[in-house]
Amino acid sequence: PDADVKVQVAVLGGGPGGYTAAFRAADLGLSVALIDRGEQLGGVCLNVGCIPSKALLHVAKVMTEAAELGEAGITFEAPKIDVDQVRAFKNKVVGRLTGGLEQLAKQRKVQVVRGTGEFTSPNTIQVGDTVVGFENCIIASGSEAASLPFLPEDSRIVDSTGALEVDGIPGRLLVIGGGIIGLEMATVYDALGSKVTVVELLDQLIPGADKDLIRVLEKRVKGRYEAIHLATGVESVEASDEGLKVKFGEHTEVFDRILVAVGRKPNGKVIAAEKAGVNVTDRGFIESDLQMKTNVAHIYSIGDVRGEPMLAHKATHEGSLAAEVISGENVSWDVRSIPSVAYTDPEVAWTGLTETQAKAEGKEVEVAGFPWAASGRALSMGRSDGLTKLILEPGTNRILGAGIVGVNAGELLAEAVLAIEAGLDAEDIALTIHPHPTLSETVGFSAEQAEGTITDLM
Ligand code: FAD
């Protein structure tokens, strides 16, 4: 059939990867259709991921900080929580951003096609009654929450999307999965007053980050949560009127709600990729080369569906790149490090080579670190529970990686990401004047530590 919409570039999926690709392609003068099945553009990140979680984490942070001001002689009464208003605040933040995207699409004459899209040939996608014909396609269909096969159907068992709805504050909350998403939601519900238990299959929270960073986080959350069970798997869940009876390790306990945060699965199998001849892996990823080209040269893949790490800033970077390649620019993926941040309390942030990775790969590295107990700013904030460290190449002190745990670690990490990208060494950072007194000095002090030039800690 003839296409109803004919474009040079069809983008399948309107998340951060997809909308960035669509906008970039339009800015480069190409005609673009952006296909998404959601009510609002923005994908997981804006609607049910990065942004709503950060709005709720902000609420949690202010509440926790206020409660901890007793040490400075200020006490507040117990907070009154209006969950409907909390939800409304979060929804307003999301609405501002997703509404902005609609405007940006309109300004660029990007045609937004709403509905579920499936390939019908290497040059067409069917969306409801509409056929979108394209010269090039960018697959940006993202990912969705993974589940556990033995869980019963029950409204008290939710994934991250359900938890972000803040449908009441459960008395006892079980979080299955001690990764970034599970722990961010644990941070929110702990602040709101739930008693939180975390069960993690591996022997460390946030597997992937170095142990010394996680120790700082663990120390704080151990004092706040009801329990943390590492190296433990949930075996069964039984739903009854009294609650959710959960068996894990030696325990059988009853919870009011369960958050399942056991990872995400890529949406490679929901787009009829085979009709376009595009390969999909068993797990559902659609692999592509350094120019984002799949095995079919005019079809590209970006974002969560392309591969790990499943992070928004990786998706957006890949999105612009794919658009530039389509427009004829001779560019390809050349990124030295993708930062990871857990917006927990304290935050955990790392980038480039980790110590754990270096050890596993048998790579010699030097490590220079600075404990926040010696940072004037951290102390004055009442939050000296932190650590900044740089991972360096022996002999040259070139920066290969960085890890930070502490309040605002995510913001602080950006300097290290730039340093790695620009091929800087510790001396470059040590000779950079960092504003005093800031937490950013801990990056500078770590570099001075590496150079052996540190004289005064505060
Ligand atoms: P997505 O955002 O998944 O978008 C894909 C879009 O495609 C969706 O709208 C989907 O409905 C649509 N789609 C799929 N199939 C079809 C189809 N057949 N037809 C039409 N439309 C389709 N990352 C960070 O970097 N920082 C964070 O702080 C962060 N926090 C997170 C918190 C939570 C709770 C979650 C769940 C994730 C978080 N992430 C975070 C991850 C981040 O959301 C993802 O990495 C990011 O959204 C990936 O973007 P994407 O464009 O690849 O896909």
Automatic annotation (TrEMBL):
Catalysed reaction equations from the record: N(6)-[(R)-dihydrolipoyl]-L-lysyl-[protein] + NAD(+) = N(6)-[(R)-lipoyl]-L-lysyl-[protein] + NADH + H(+)
Entry annotated with the keyword Cytoplasm: no
Secretion signal, residue range per the UniProt entry: none
EC number: 1.8.1.4
Cofactor(s) demanded: FAD
Record keywords: Disulfide bond, FAD, Flavoprotein, Lipoyl, NAD, Oxidoreductase, Redox-active center
Keyword Transcription: no
Top-level EC class: oxidoreductase
A single GO BP: 2-oxoglutarate metabolic process
Record GO terms (molecular function): dihydrolipoyl dehydrogenase (NADH) activity; flavin adenine dinucleotide binding
Co-factor: note: Binds 1 FAD per subunit.
Stated family: Belongs to the class-I pyridine nucleotide-disulfide oxidoreductase family.
Misc note: The active site is a redox-active disulfide bond.
Name this polypeptide is given: Dihydrolipoyl dehydrogenase
Organism: Solirubrobacter ginsenosidimutans
